[in-house]
């Protein structure tokens, strides 16, 4: 491999992330040299691969029992991965699942890892999901539903659309067909159910179509994803978190990966949480982690 290795952070050491990474390394012997795991020293030693240790050398996680020390290890792994990309050590980052509430308790000021890496690298992120049957990008994500309309503007909708177009091009679509969901039920029903669709989203879609992009919308959110699954579109733009992730996780819960688009470096992650109830059982589903690693490698080609 000519490119630099991909960093893989442990996530919360008490969660399911470390054992899923361990299983992936065992199942992908030919590719394990492409990744550098970052996490507790004792875990790195157990993996038997070249890795980077963070936190106290004697730290030992208890599966399913998160604590402050583990949150600090998770944050240290993220810090090390971000720094490693910036200094040319790594080409991309795959992040293990974290406990957002736990990190907040130690002073972590970001809603999630997406915002953390965007801040570290100084760019505007776009949250997207791919790797299974669906490809979805979100215009807004970790904000209360009552604030969504106030956060929508032509700039962030266009940035999301163009980022998804670029992603689908990298994944093999020469001229990606993108569906754009409306904000309101029935995409506003010609203004009866809300003005944002006709006043904001439709003019932007028309402009991008004039520029040569294959964009359709605003479409009702209750049909856009079905049409995507049937092959009419290569990806869907959702206006808010649950509009996009409800359909995606219903169909692709075990296979989709989270991607942060629009940054200098590729960052992906499995599309699931810490799963403390499964930690230590080795019964967790590793397909989403596999998708995250495959996508990180693919997007550098």
Question: How do the helices and strands line up, and which of them pair or pack?
Answer:
Blueprint: E1 6-9, H1 17-27, E2 35-39, H2 41-47, E3 52-53, H3 68-86, E4 92-94, H4 100-105, H5 113-121, E5 126-130, E6 136-138, H6 148-151, H7 154-170, E7 177-181, H8 196-210, E8 214-219, H9 221-229, E9 235-238, H10 241-252, E10 257-261, E11 266-270, H11 287-298
Parallel strand pairs: 1-2, 1-4, 2-3, 4-11, 6-9, 7-8, 7-9
Antiparallel strand pairs: 5-6, 5-10, 10-11
Brief digest:
This protein is an alpha/beta fold.
How many angstroms does the end-to-end distance come to? 11 Å
> How are the strands ordered across the major sheet?
3-2-1-4-11-10-5-6-9-7-8
Content-based structural category: alpha/beta
CATH architecture of the largest domain: 3-Layer(aba) Sandwich
Assess the beta-strand content as a share of residues.
15-25%
Q: Report the radius of gyration as a whole number of Å.
A: 20 Å
List SSEs in N-to-C order: EHEHEHEHHEEHHEHEHEHEEH
Low-confidence stretches: none
Number of helices: 11
How many domain regions? Answer: 2
Helical content, roughly? 40-55%
The total count of strands amounts to: 11
**Biggest sheet, open or closed, and with what strands and sense?**
11 strands, mixed
What's the CATH H-level homologous superfamily of the largest domain?
A: Isopropylmalate Dehydrogenase
The average pLDDT is 95
CATH first level of the largest domain: which class? Alpha Beta
The shape, in one word, is: elongated
Here the CATH topology of the largest domain equals: Isopropylmalate Dehydrogenase
